[in-house]
Amino acid sequence: MITIRFIFVLIVEFALALAGGVYKVNVNSGSYLNVRQSPNTSSAIVGTVLKDKLLYVQSISNGWAKFYKGYCSSQYLTKVTKGTTYYTTDDLNFRTGAGTNYGRITTLSKGTAVTYFGRDPWNNGWGITSNGYCSMDYLSSKTNSNTKPVTQPVNPPSGSINLYTKEYKQYNYEYEYVGGCYPACTIHRYGCLITSITMTLNQVEKKNYTPVDMAKKMTFNGSGDATSYGSTHLKATWHSNTQQALQAVLNSLKKGRIAIYGSSGSSGWHFIAVYGYTGNSKTPLNAADFLIHDPGYSKSKLSEHINTHPNTPETIIYN
């Protein structure tokens, strides 16, 4: 009986591997594709997926593609065959969906080459490959990966520092938190800290999180302020004056790590990510020499932020 069951599992895994394929959503720009509970247009819509996002499709039948979130019309999907070669950094399970609760398609040993296409639209920590979904914690573009926080070189002679990180705007995300916020909060409304943290961790740890990914790692109270930063490496410090806060930010930048600066003003608290410095490091430090990514406003220098939020400076630094 055990032997028969084992053979059956192998057959199922082999069938899934044969049927699966990677597809790109092909709809008009700015539009989206409905995901339904069952393979018909009268079925309930359980989600949507935007143009050019990728799906690992388990099967296609009668014009409907099945994947781990439900069903969508195969009319608006284009098969993708060209990807990038990545390597497993440990024995790695590949699954039908982006999570450990989904069925296992196959397991590949450490050092195996796989074809990687991109991140899952809903769970950024999981990647889409020709073998199915897998955790990106165990997949690397290099054959021998020991992922560590990366310290980027700076340019001491000129004093100029520019640490690359993708800029995010909180108003691009409407994720609702369930619990801890009443009424339900969104990143759009309260997401400056979450978004700044996302940019910081992405730059330092070479990740590709979205603010939604980071929100899922945090806890919230009241108006959506994070009481847990989602990383044991982030340390918050209150400063008695602006010069102390600027020095803490500069020290972080010199180590190759962008920093978070927060302070209060007439409109309340606001947080931004400081990614660059153009001064000569001499005191007193000039806030206009610090370059920022502001999640909520079109500001480019720390002095602009401090003009509207001059009180109670706080820094959050990656240690």
Account of the 3D structure:
The protein has 319 residues and is α+β, with helices and mostly antiparallel strands. The protein has 2 domains: 1-146, SH3 type barrels, CATH 2.30.30.40; 161-318, Cathepsin B, Chain A (Alpha-Beta Complex). 19% of the residues lie in helices and 33% in strands. The protein has helices spanning 2-19, 187-190, 192-205, 211-215, 242-254, 302-308; strands spanning 21-25, 32-36, 45-50, 54-57, 59-61, 64-67, 70-73, 77-79, 84-88, 92-95, 104-108, 113-119, 126-129, 132-135, 139-140, 161-162, 220-221, 225-226, 234-238, 259-265, 268-277, 290-293, 311-318. The strands form 7 sheets. Strands 16, 19, 20, 21, 22 and 23 form a 6-stranded antiparallel sheet that branches. The chain has a 5-stranded antiparallel sheet with strand order 14-13-12-9-15, with no helix packed on it. The longest helix is centred in the N-terminal third of the chain and has 18 residues, at 2-19. The chain is elongated and about 70 Å long.
CATH architecture of the largest domain: Alpha-Beta Complex
What is the rounded distance between the termini? 55 Å
Tally of contiguous helical segments: 6
**Portion in beta strands:** 25-35%
The name of the CATH topology of the largest domain is: Cathepsin B, Chain A
Sequence stretches where pLDDT stays below 50 over 5 or more residues: 1-18, 145-157
What Rg do the Cα atoms give? 23 Å
Helix content: 10-25%
Instruction: Give the SSE order as H and E letters.
Output: HEEEEEEEEEEEEEEEEHHHEEEHEEEHE
